[in-house]
Amino acid sequence: MRTVLYILQKEFIQVFRDKAMLPIIFIVPVMQLLVLSYTATFEIKNTRFVVLDHDKSVLSKKLVSKFRGSSFFSFAGDATNYEEAEQAIKKNQTDQILIIEPDFEKKLNQEKSAKVQVVTNAINGSAASLMYAYAASIVSDFNREIIVEQTPLKNLGLPIRVRSSYWYNPELNYITFMVPGILVLLVTIIGMFLSGMNLVKEKEIGTIEQINVTPIKKHQFIIGKLIPFWVIANVDLVIGLLLARFVFNIPVAGNIFLLFFVASIYLVVVLSFGLFISTLTNTMQQSMFISWFFLVVFILMSGLFTPVESMPGWAQVIVKFNPVSYFIRINRMIMLKGSGFTDFQNDFWILTAYAAAMFIFSTARYRKTV
Amino acid sequence: MWPFIKKEFLHIFRDYRSMLILFGMPVVQVLLFGFAITTDINDAKIAILDHSKDPVTRELTQKFLSSGYFILEQNLHSNNQIEDAFRKGEIKEVVVFENRFAEKLKKEGRADMQILLDASEPNTASMLNAYSEGIVNTFGMQQLKAANKIPLSITTESLMLYNPELKSVYMFVPGVITVLLMLVSAMMTSISITREKETGTMEALLVSPLKPLQIILGKVSPYVLLSFINLLVILLLARFVFSMPVQGNYALLLAESVLFIVMSLALGILISTVSKTQQQAMLLSMFALMLPTILLSGFIFPIENMPVILQWLSHLMPSKWFIIIIKNIMLKGVGITYFWKETLIILFLTLFFIGMSVKKFKVRLE
Amino acid sequence: MKQREEIISVENLVKKFGRFTANDRLNFSVGKGEIFGFLGANGAVKTTAIKILSGLSKPTSGKAVVAGFDVSRHPDKVKKNIGYMSQRFSLYEDMTVKENFRFYGGIYGMRRKEIRDRTAFFLKNLGMQSFENMLLKKIPLGWKQKLAFSVAILHNPRIVFLDEPTGGVDPITRRQFWELIYETAAQGTTVFVTTHYMDEAEYCERVSIMSEGRIEAIGTPAQLKEKFKVSTMDEVFLKIARYKE
């Protein structure tokens, strides 16, 4: 055990002596947490629309004013013909075109039916379907309004009233949702890069040979390498939680010690993973690419930005091997819902098994002889 | 100059392991993300608490489950179970039908139901709510129509431009191309140059008759080729695996991509001039760039919805401009007149990065 | 000759890399307290042998016993008893002299006081007390080599392996370096050193000369010069090389 302490001492000296590294390790995550937590929203507001009104009647103008009055939409101008309107989409000056057919009012009065066309820029498919849904609901509200106007006695609401309530986050504040997730990502990236680079760096500068010729045990060496980054990542986590509490006003609803306990196990997974990559590679460049590859996969397939349920079956299997998704889930449960250990014990045991496996892999893979 | 470039090429292409990593990983990522990442929601797990259990609630439940958005995870029997269901984290929505639902609907013409959502994931929650309300309202309209209560109707017709099937992949392929080109190019150059600095071989090059600019060009040119090959592979995958169209001009697409690659490499050089060790260069090019490139570029989250300050910040992200350009060429099929501004911005950034690195480089030499 | 106690004995040692044979059936032994020079034109071949003897690399076949332990079966027991100074400079550049000593002493399991005393002793001996808190990267190469040697023998190993320890060092520092080697050997530590400076071969008690992976000659410098009927080790070396052609 004393041997491990000497390695710890050495690693800490090296990390803290590199003055350029300190801001990267401690300031960059803070900045990113502060900025990036605001980015992740699918909330649709201010959908820009261009109006192509072929009718120009009282009724058509009234419909347009409904759109203009909605908080989801923002008026981006009138077009005189379809080409002009399409140009506006091409130039990215609008997201939607609202087309009202000629004789809209007349048809509605005489034939009791009329048509409105909504053209949507659908490159972002899921946003497009929401934008269309909002447009369609404005049209159908308008439809009911004129029915009520024309037949005053009729009370025409929909027969089934839906009351929605959003639990845990009634204002649908996406910041609350993103902060715990982004925090996990930042801690993960820091941990994996630092550990992934560390061993291979000693290989590149040649000091590993001097270590390998000593009687040090493999696991002592790996533990000695792990703990410093484990401490650094935990410090980043503390800073992140303080920011969450005092800047974003998200207190930890559950037990904070439980959170750090799970984080500690999780970090063993991440750091051992990094060290494992480090043992497999010969240069820092290779090690970085491989770490980067896994990090991007872990991040994009964590369920933080896109829902896991929507992925195809095989991709969901891959997600089961993604440690990041486990910890994001647990971290959110503890921070936002105040969940206790029994609520996520399955995830926890999987994470623990993962930690043990990765630690064994990296120890076994580290060779003192060539 | 040529022998030097040749040496750099050999140096890189002989390292099979690195080559495998460089070409293999982007392919795997494009395939993985192209198939797996979608912002749509389907198969969200829900629980149903039916206090009424009548034909109408059953029919409406059936509507929910056949929509493709939801799958039934659990039937609840009392209000106390709701909290518990949510806390386990699997269930995203609970649908609650009030007592005597069908009866009220028939007698009073009105019935109530509740949609409870786990909003700890607000994006999912609001989408699920939109889907649910849509299902209930359509059901309600059908009931009204069946009762002949609609005297006149305005129909809404939808036309989805550029992506009629609303495929997520149209959104993600441009993003993945951008992120890969940007990070791979910036990372590769910054690391390879700092490595020469760290191992001391840079000094040997600097005392040679080569000019600093030549040294940098020599180091960068193999990576231009590597990134270009990567780009072609990704485009082929997009075209033939994900059937992504290229509506616009191929030559223009390639030319814009080369411009973007050069910009990324210039950024890589700049990073290498400000960092002393490989470790610093890597942390700067990856840690500082990775999340912002993904999140502030419009890759996943539309920039228009972000707070205004972040929209300003996103103007600084080169990836944002390139994503706009690719989408314009590939999906809208428009020409350079529609995105000359974006092109100019990337060009300007390229010159800026090069200028900055030349300045830094000179300072170091003095 | 004094009663010889063998501390390294090598029998039929072979190391192959694919089809290339780096070490071809090596047989030799080194006595306790001896300064043994391991010479040859090809640096990689010598380094391979040193790596096998210090437990860093496994032999393809054959047997090597170092400090009483078989290197392929008990590499960690061997490692407890040896010191090693590699061809590449391998102290940490971003740590001070004292920190390097403390670290390496620590992983050999030395007590804190022992490390402090030994560090003070070495720095005094080298006249480098004022360097104690200086970062390694600020120290000139020759001094760093002497520090690396001190680190290699910090834990009082029974044998120390030196792989081209004086490469790239000025002649005065080289001389000082050899004085350190003599001092170390005088205290009973066996020194196994590779070099390509033939004048240094003269300083060794016994030398072996390798060519194309084989040991072509072994003995004291005097014996070898007599055998090849020449006056310097340089000429011995040339003769062996020519003889091979």
Describe this structure in words.
- The complex is a heterotrimer of chains A (370), B (366) and C (245).
- Chain A has 2 domains: 2-40 and 172-365, no CATH class; 47-150, abc type-2 transporter like domain (abc type-2 transporter like fold).
- Chain A contains 14 helices and 5 strands.
- Chain A has helices at 2-17, 21-36, 58-69, 82-90, 104-110, 125-150, 174-205, 207-212, 218-246, 256-280, 284-300, 313-320, 323-337, 345-365, and strands spanning 47-53, 73-78, 96-100, 113-121, 160-167.
- A 4-stranded mixed beta sheet of chain A has the order 2-1-3-4, with helices on both faces.
- The model of chain A has no long low-confidence stretch (mean pLDDT 88).
- With 366 residues, chain B is of the alpha/beta class.
- Chain B folds into 2 domains: 2-37 and 166-365, no CATH class; 44-146, abc type-2 transporter like fold (3-Layer(aba) Sandwich).
- Chain B contains 14 helices and 5 strands.
- In chain B, strands 2-1-3-4 form a 4-stranded mixed beta sheet, sandwiched between helices.
- The radius of gyration of chain C is 18 Å and the shape is globular.
- In chain C, helix 5 packs parallel to helix 6 (171-186).
- Chain C is of the alpha/beta class and 245 residues long.
- Chain C has 9 helices and 10 strands.
- Chain C has a domain at 6-16 and 32-90 and 157-244: Rossmann fold, CATH 3.40.50.
- Chain C has a 6-stranded mixed beta sheet, with helices on both faces.
- Chain A binds chain C through residues 2-3, 5-7, 9-10, 13-14, 17-18, 205-207, 209-217, 368-370, and chain C through 51, 54-58, 75-77, 79-80, 82, 84, 86, 88-95, 99, 102-109, 151.
The outline of chain A comes out as: elongated
Instruction: Count all strands of chain A and give the number.
Output: 5
**What letter string, H or E per element, gives the SSE order of chain A?**
HHEHEHEHEHEHHHHHHHH
State Rg of chain A: 29 Å
Q: Give the helices and strands of chain B as they follow along the chain.
A: HHEHEHEHEHEHHHHHHHH
Q: What is the helix tally of chain B?
A: 14
Q: For the report, how would you describe the main beta sheet of chain A?
A: 4 strands, mixed
Number of structural units classed as domains of chain B? 2
Query: Span between N and C termini of chain B?
Result: 23 Å
Low-confidence segments of chain B, ≥5 residues, pLDDT <50?
none
| Spatial shape of chain B | elongated
What's the average pLDDT of chain B? 84
Helix content of chain A: 55-70%
Instruction: Identify the quaternary structure here.
Output: heterotrimer
